[in-house]
Write a structure and sequence with these properties.
The protein has 567 residues and is α+β, with helices and mostly antiparallel strands. Helices cover 31% and strands 22% of the residues. The protein is built from 19 helices and 19 strands. It has a 7-stranded antiparallel β-sheet. Strands 1-2-3-5-4 form a 5-stranded mixed β-sheet, covered by helices on one side. A 5-stranded antiparallel β-sheet has the order 6-7-11-9-10. Helix 7 packs antiparallel against helix 13 (387-394). 53% of the residues are buried.
Length: 567
Amino acid sequence: MMLFALSQSLLFLTTSVVVAAVSAHRCRSQPGDASFPTSHQLAAFNSSIDGRLINVAPSAKLCMTLPGGCTDAEWQSGIFRDNIPGAMLQVNWEQDYDSNPPSLCFRNSTNCGQGNVPIFGVNASTAAQIQAGVRFAQAHNLKIAIKASGHDYLGRSTAKNSILMWTRNFQNITFHDSFQVGQKIMGSAVTVGSGVGMQTLYMAAKAQGKIFSGARANTAVLAGGYVQGAGHAPLAPTLGLAADNALEFQIVIADGSLVTANEASNPDLFWALRGGGAGSWGVIISATFRVFPTFDAVLHTTTITVNSTEDVRTLSTLHAQHIFDMDPLHPGQYYRWLATPPTFTGVSETHFPNTSIEAVNATLAPYLNAASELGFHFDVSITRSLVNDILTGLVPDDQGGVEFISGSRLLSDDVYRQNATAVGVAYKLLLDGGVSVISECLVAGGKVSRNANISSAVTPKWRTAKTHVIINLPWSESTTPDKVEAVREDMTHNKVPILAALAGPGSGSYSNEADVREPDFQTTFFGPNFARLSEIKKKYDPEDLFIVGAGVGSENWDSDGLCRVGK
């Protein structure tokens, strides 16, 4: 594992990272503040946690320390970046574009700033070390960042001038034939550490003859921010959201206590942890989820390249008109358009559980035949296998080391039933405006809708949704900070409103794949649950130790989560 040992550069911080100090009661302690921990305090803390305090550096800076640097393959590998404490999957979240001067660090940089990367971190191997880290942060008024893998579309797993709680080493997996909460038997389950990635868990479940509702991404972590945001999945229409299947959490809260949250113990916190937003409640050590007997599934993939956004409009409208054809089979589908100038590439991956290839072909024939009649012909592949193997092989690694931001909306059944043509029009408009990727994820309906009776913080918009649509806007390492800001403004004020208009008044969004600058995130991400979430936040984190972008409580802090705003 590639780590920096605690060094003199950490113990004797220079003024190069100093931020102007404001009154201590309004801001977190920062380098140069009298309240910032001294070298002796840091050394004593390091000793108290068995030497697990580490320097944290931007991924590009770490690459500079390796013989020959990082290869292109390593730089772009989500698995490789998982093992770097300061790395995010999207390297733009490591950058501080907004300070004057900006603090940036790229592979071709001659001078690397610390950016939005924590200064030091707890490379925890035990819950006790996380507890000590949280208490140290509380005692010294430090900002906390929590990270398992850095698979985070909103940049909440990193923060400048902060201390990192890194849970990557929590790799425990325990299967239960009959998990019990209080006096209630919950059935088959798995308890998983907050560092375990999806691929690892799919294979472990396969060995037990089990499957669970989890992400298609390799580096997403089931017991982390994923479930706290709700957790959509290819199998969600059949098994429900990840949050719907969570049974228990072991979590370190703001006072440093390790507590159990389930229906019987701390039920309000349990409610909030299922859909109330990533990073706002504490440091999850492990979580327990329902598992199900595994089964075979059919993966149906289509690919097509078209020459214009008008073709995209035509095919997306047709797809929207036929989306309900699949309902009897309860599939999960990822329908994507990628801008590949001067062409556009459409890829659709559909997961059909517990069915036959013949049934799948018959279900999709009306859509594919209608496209053929319009002159569009897809490359098609179809395979039937154990669902664990399909999900493991689908994305063997996640692409990292790139710069982009996202925006999203949940689209209801009504959008498709009443105005399917508007879907195609919106996608054309977005691609014409420079959006690089449109991903329409059919990960709702079915069991997600039927689980509306579950009491959790999942926004009710999930229960009436048909799809989750996410869009990306990219830039490159050479893009200047002012142009980066222009891209961010374009997403918030131009691109997301196109999706919002398509979704209709009072639209909602999946908080894990969205615009961190969402103007009314309280309503868009949490809906009617926000008021109760705020009360639970005050109970378990009264001093706002856990603040992330567009998270509960962040409305009272600046965009860096370092200083309070308002009264």
